Automatic annotation (TrEMBL):
InterPro entries: Folylpolyglutamate_synth, Folylpolyglutamate_synth_CS, Mur-like_cat_sf, Mur_ligase_C, Mur_ligase_C_dom_sf, Mur_ligase_cen. It catalyses: 10-formyltetrahydrofolyl-(gamma-L-Glu)(n) + L-glutamate + ATP = 10-formyltetrahydrofolyl-(gamma-L-Glu)(n+1) + ADP + phosphate + H(+); 7,8-dihydropteroate + L-glutamate + ATP = 7,8-dihydrofolate + ADP + phosphate + H(+); (6S)-5,6,7,8-tetrahydrofolyl-(gamma-L-Glu)(n) + L-glutamate + ATP = (6S)-5,6,7,8-tetrahydrofolyl-(gamma-L-Glu)(n+1) + ADP + phosphate + H(+); (6R)-5,10-methylenetetrahydrofolyl-(gamma-L-Glu)(n) + L-glutamate + ATP = (6R)-5,10-methylenetetrahydrofolyl-(gamma-L-Glu)(n+1) + ADP + phosphate + H(+). This is Dihydrofolate synthase/folylpolyglutamate synthase. Its cofactor is Mg(2+). One of its GO terms (molecular function) is dihydrofolate synthase activity. Keywords: ATP-binding, Folate biosynthesis, Ligase, Magnesium, Metal-binding, Nucleotide-binding. Functions in two distinct reactions of the de novo folate biosynthetic pathway. Catalyzes the addition of a glutamate residue to dihydropteroate (7,8-dihydropteroate or H2Pte) to form dihydrofolate (7,8-dihydrofolate monoglutamate or H2Pte-Glu). Also catalyzes successive additions of L-glutamate to tetrahydrofolate or 10-formyltetrahydrofolate or 5,10-methylenetetrahydrofolate, leading to folylpolyglutamate derivatives. Pathway: Cofactor biosynthesis; tetrahydrofolate biosynthesis; 7,8-dihydrofolate from 2-amino-4-hydroxy-6-hydroxymethyl-7,8-dihydropteridine diphosphate and 4-aminobenzoate: step 2/2; Cofactor biosynthesis; tetrahydrofolylpolyglutamate biosynthesis. It comes from the Bacteria. One of its GO terms (cellular component) is cytoplasm. GO terms for biological process: folic acid biosynthetic process; tetrahydrofolate biosynthetic process.
Length: 430
C-alpha cells in the first residue's frame, strides 16, 4: 500500500457513513485550518447531475488557452486520487498531496468527519497556498449541503442539467433535486444555467429570485447548436462560428455552450481564438473516449473500443444518442460491457439502448464491495430484452467481444469501472 493510500484509508475511518450531507463538520475543520476558503483564487462553482466535469474541462481548456493558470477540483478520480486536485494546470504531486493530507489529519485530531469532507479541506488548503488565476470547483453531490459549498462569494455559478440521481440523498423528483443544486447560487454572483426540465427550471428560478440573481438561461439567453460541421454559439452580444468540440456526442455541444456562456457572462478574459483552441484541445477521460492500447488490441480487426463513465439514466440516454450517430456514419454491431454500482438501477440504464445492441457482457467492478454482481446486471439486461451474459473480468469480456467481427465495443456503466479499465490499459489520466 502506498503512503497516499495509507493516509486515505485512515481518513476514511473517521466517520461511520461514506455520505452524510452537512456543512457543520467541514466548517469546523476549515476554521481550525485558518479558513483557506477565504484565500482562494476567483471561484467558478459548478453543480448539476450530468455534464459538470465536461463543462469544467471546457472552461479549463479555454482559460489555459488564454494563458491563465487554473486550479481544478473534481471527483471521483479514475485511477489515482491526485486526479481530483489540479494545481495551476498540473495534477498535484504525490509528496505535496501527502504532506497536505497529513497536515489536515493532524489538525482534525481524530474528530468525526467524512472522507469527502476531509479531502475537500485538503484541496482548499492547497488551492489557498498555491497561486492561480481561477479555481473551477465541482460539487460532489447535491449543492446546498455539499462540502464544496463553503465559498461565500464565488465569481460565478453554473448548474448543468438536473436529472434523477442519488435519490436516496437528494429527493425522488427532479424538482426536489433541483432545490439542492440551486443551493450553490449566491447573491451577487452571476449564474449560467443549462437547459432544464420544467420542474427543475421552475425550482431554480424561484431560488434565484429569492437571492436577487437573474440567471443566464440556455435556450433563452444563449443557445448552442451544430450546423454544417461547426458549432454555433449565440447570445445577446452576437454569434460565434466555432469548430466542433473534441469531446464526442451531441450532449457535448450543450456542455461546450454552457462553458462559453460562462466565459462571456462572467466577463472572463478569453477571446474567440482561445475558445476555439479550447474546443480543440479539451481533454476529459472516460467520457465516450476511444481507447487504444493493449485492451483494444484484443478485439477483432476493424473493431473499435470506447470507454464511457456514464452511470445513470440521463447519461445512458446521452451515450445512446451518440452511438446512434456513430452508427449512421459507420454501421457496426454494438457490444456493451457494463459494470455498475448498486446505487444505480440497471434497468433504467439499459432502457435507452433498446434495439441498438448486439450483445451485453456484464462485470462486477473489481475492488468495489458496493458494486452490482455481474449476474444480477445480466439478469436485468435479459429482462429488458437483451442478449446478455456475465463475465469474470474485463479481459474475459473483451475476449468474448472479439468473437464479433468489426464490432463497436463500449465499456460503460460506472466511473469506477472506467478507472479499473484505464489502469489495466496502462493509460491513467495525466
Amino acid at each position: 500500500m502506498s503512503r497516499t493510500d495509507a493516509i486515505l484509508k485512515r481518513l476514511s475511518g473517521l466517520h461511520p457513513k461514506l455520505i452524510d450531507l452537512s456543512l457543520e463538520r467541514i466548517s469546523r475543520l476549515l476554521e481550525e485550518l485558518g479558513r483557506p476558503q477565504d484565500r482562494l483564487p476567483p471561484v467558478i462553482h459548478v453543480a448539476g447531475t450530468n455534464g459538470k466535469g465536461s463543462t469544467i474541462a471546457y472552461l479549463r481548456a479555454m482559460l489555459e488557452a488564454s494563458g491563465k493558470s487554473v486550479h481544478v477540483y473534481t471527483s471521483p478520480h479514475l485511477v489515482h486520487f491526485n486526479e481530483r486536485i489540479r494545481l495551476g494546470g498540473t495534477l498535484v504531486g504525490t509528496r505535496q498531496l501527502n504532506a497536505a493530507l497529513e497536515r489536515v489529519e493532524a489538525v482534525n485530531a481524530g474528530q468525526s468527519i467524512t472522507f469527502f469532507e476531509v479531502t475537500t479541506a485538503t484541496a482548499m488548503l492547497l488551492f489557498a497556498e498555491n497561486p492561480a488565476d481561477y479555481l473551477l470547483l465541482e460539487v460532489g453531490m447535491g449543492g446546498s449541503y455539499d462540502t464544496t459549498n463553503v465559498v461565500d462569494h464565488p465569481l460565478g455559478t453554473i448548474i448543468t442539467p438536473v436529472d434523477l440521481d442519488h435519490q436516496q440523498f437528494l429527493g425522488n423528483t427532479i424538482g426536489k433535486i433541483a432545490v439542492e443544486k440551486a443551493g450553490i447560487l449566491k447573491s451577487g454572483a452571476p449564474a449560467v444555467i443549462a437547459r432544464q426540465a420544467d420542474d427543475g427550471r421552475d425550482t431554480i428560478e424561484r431560488a434565484a429570485h429569492r437571492l436577487g440573481v437573474t440567471p443566464f438561461w440556455a435556450g433563452q439567453d444563449f443557445d448552442t447548436y451544430a450546423q454544417d460541421g461547426r458549432l454555433v454559439y449565440q447570445d445577446e452580444t452576437g454569434l460565434l462560428d466555432l469548430p466542433l468540440p473534441r469531446l464526442i456526442g451531441a450532449h457535448q455541444i450543450g456542455n461546450a455552450g454552457v462553458a462559453i456562456a460562462a466565459i462571456r457572462h462572467f466577463g472572463l478574459p478569453v477571446d474567440t481564438a482561445a475558445i476555439e483552441r479550447g474546443l480543440q484541445t479539451v481533454v476529459w477521460p472516460a467520457r465516450l473516449s476511444p481507447l487504444k492500447g493493449k485492451l483494444s488490441d484484443m478485439l477483432s480487426p476493424g473493431s473499435e473500443l470506447w470507454l464511457d463513465g456514464g452511470h445513470n439514466a440521463h447519461g445512458a440516454a446521452a451515450l445512446s444518442r451518440a452511438l446512434v450517430a456513430m452508427n449512421q456514419t459507420r454501421p457496426a454491431p454494438l457490444v456493451l460491457i457494463v459494470g455498475m454500482m448498486n446505487t444505480r438501477a440497471p434497468a433504467d440504464f439499459f432502457m435507452p439502448f433498446a434495439g441498438q445492441v448486439a450483445e451485453v457482457f456484464t462485470l462486477t467492478i473489481p475492488g468495489e464491495p458496493n458494486a452490482h454482481k455481474a449476474a444480477d446486471i445480466a439478469a436485468e439486461a435479459k429482462k429488458a430484452g437483451f442478449t446478455a451474459s456475465p463475465k469474470r473480468s474485463v479481459l474475459s469480456a473483451l475476449a468474448a467481444a472479439a468473437e464479433i467481427p468489426a464490432a463497436r465495443v463500449v465499456i460503460c456503466g460506472s466511473l469506477y469501472l472506467a478507472g479499473d479499465v484505464l489502469h489495466k490499459n496502462g493509460t491513467p489520466p495525466v
